[in-house]
Every structure is written in C-alpha cells, then in structure tokens.
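Hi D.,

Good news: the full-assembly prediction came through. Inputs first.
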Amino acid sequence: MEKRKTLIAISLILIFFIIYFLQSNFFSWFTIAGIKPNIFVILALFIGLFLGRKYGLCFGIIYGFFLDSLIGRNIGTSSLMLGIIGLIGGYIDKNFSKDNRLMIMAMVAITTIIYEIGLYIIQSIILKYQIEQINILIKTLVIEIIYNIIITIIIYPLIKKGGYYVEGIFKENNILTRYF
Amino acid sequence: MYNNKKGGTIGIIITIVILILLVILSNSKLSDISYLGNAINTIVMPIQNGYTYLKNKISGNTGFFTNIEELSSENDNLKRENSELEQKLRELEIIKAENITLREYLNLTEKYTSYTTTPAYIINKDTSNYSSTFVINVGSNDGIKENMAVIADKGLVGHVVSVTSNTAKVQTIIDPSSAVSVIFKSTGDNAICKGSISTNSLKATYISTGAEILENDTIETSGMGGIYPKGIMIGTVSKIENTKNVIDKYAIIKPAVDFNKLETVLVIIK
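Then the structure:
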C-alpha cells in the first residue's frame, strides 16, 4: 500500500509539470478574450477533496514552491495560496458531496476567487504596488472563473474516476467515519 | 447526470465544441480563419470538379481524356516530381524560419548599435493573468546580471529580475509592479509609467501640473532610476485622463511592443 501511495504522489508531481507546460504554452494562446485559465487551483482543490486536508495542504505547498521557483517573483506566495486551496478542499470534503456538479462548479469558482485575489493582494504588498483598475481585475477574474468551470466540467468525469481510486488508497482507514 | 453515461458524454462533447468556438471567435479576425474557407472548399471542390467534367463532356471537350496510357505515365512522372518538390519546399521552409530569426537578431542589433547586447529567446511565459514575467534562454554564463534592461525591435520590454546559470527571469513593463521613469518626447515632460493587469496598456502618472501632453505623442525612457538607459521607445499616448484634482492627471499609454507575440529579445549588457 505504501508503494502505491508513493507512486500516486510521484504521478501527482508529474501531473503538475504536464499542467505547467500546458498552462505556459498551450493556454498562452488558447485563451478566452486574452485570459488564461488557472488549472493549478483546480488541481490543488481536487487533491484536497479526494486526499484530505493534510495532503491537500502538502501538495498545494509543493506545487506553489515549484511555480514560484519556475516563474514567480518570490518564493512562498503561490505556495501559501495553493496550500490554503488544498486545505479548503479538505474542509469542503467533510461537509459537502463531491458528486453534485453544481457544488463542484461553485467550489471551483470560490477557490479561484480566493486564490487570485489573495495572491494579488500579497504580491501588491510584497512588491509595493497599488491595487488599481478594479474593473479590469473583476473582468479578468470573471472570465478566468468561467474558463476554470468549463475545464472542470470537461475533465470532471476523469477526475472523479481517478479521485475515488486514489481516495480508496489514501483514506482506507477512515473511509467509514464519514458516514457514521 | 454523470450516471447517465450517454447523456454525460454528449454533454462533454458539446461543451468542448462550444469552448473551442468561444476561444477561436474571441481571438481571431475574419482573415485569420481562412482555414474555414479551405475546409469548406475541400467539401465543395469534388462536386465542383464533377460538375465541370460533366459540362466539358457535354460541350464536346473530351479530347483531353483520350490517350489514357500516355496520361497515366505522365501522371506518375508528375507525382514523383511533386514529392521531390515537396521535400525541397520543406527544406526551404526550415531555412526561411532560420533566416527570419537571424534577420530579427540582426535588425535588433543594428538598431541599438550604441549598446552591447545579447540576443535571447523567450522560453517560458507567465502562467498568471495578473502578472507579466517571462524566462529567456540566456543566464549568468552569457554575462547576464540582475537589473539589465531588455529590449525588442520596437522598444522597451522590461528588466532582468533574477538569473540562473542558463536562464534569466524578465519582468516586463506591463507587469503591475513595474514602474519606469519616462519622458514625453515632444514636450520633454517627465512621468512614471506603471504597468497594469491589461496587456495592452500602461499608465503614465505623476505628470507635472503644468505639463501639456498630447495624444499620439511618443514616450521614451528618461534614463533616471539606473536600470533603463535613456531614449528607448516605450509607446504612444492613446488617452489623456483629466481628473478633478490636477495632480491626479494620468495618461494611458499603448506599448510599442506587442507582448502577446514577443519571441526574441535583446538584453543590454552595457
């Protein structure tokens, strides 16, 4: 079982790099009105949802670290925000169903808002710039949320299949506690 | 809904199609979607050819098809010739692409002869919508250091924020945290040009109260601040916003460089 867990963890790191190349190449031109989606948020959220708070937080921080060192201006900002998203995913899993499509769409929308606004505020404090042009910020955010939701709808059946398999391995001991 | 497998699959397919259409429509002009015309032509052409053949036959223009054997050998020769030509064409395409890149480098270097520069390729772009940085394929091994200015053929791009041995991270002037000291070319007034979330505009602030700025005036770097050398083109004034308070006056600047299509840049070493 431990071997399987390690394999899954390695696969999740590989998935991050696949998404990274997609995000920085494919999605830099496959945009809606010039706006890219943010698949890292979706990934961190679903890890939190299926693997629980602890793993959600860990993977969020690891992904954020990779992201910061690959393209970011300072180490730690994306780590913090993606960690929070993973943690939120874990909390949501305790209280809501993962099978409701509307619920999933709402989760993606809320976590995208939290991640982007949180990151923008932290960056503006660290890099010392004023938050301006709120209208453009909102417009960008709305399009990004819609894009993220569309992508989630497309890949959700796949995530669900893989997610329940992984959940079975990682939550073998406490799977029943959710229902009693 | 996902329990209904058939319905779910159809739903996903429809969503993907809508998404692709949405992306294409929001990003392309009519001239860019000539491939649609090509696709339609592919469907229409066989019918059109059949129609023309019938028309020729009826009007007695059938002599062309009489000597079939001769035509068949000629056809074989032409096919062979065609594949040879295609091969040559592919080779030429590669040479052409190489030539374009070299020309770009040459143009850039010739334009900024007063600076010692290193050409670089953009190898990675920012994944976020709220910042604008990219990674180039030169690093400390090529003499790149932090705070070196980066330019393109049309004007200023940004500056180097961090360096590894083979790559360097560049913050562009359209990044929200970027601020460049600029000068209005025709009036000589100073301002600070800040980046914004929008990829196609900059904001010139701290304009002196007596300044008479003009629309379409070009702005250049002023040389103050120690990062950017003087006289590098930044863009043109597209709009002047007069606020109630004169000291809050600002101008919207259209950058000279198209950051969406940027592929090659020059790093100013000296």
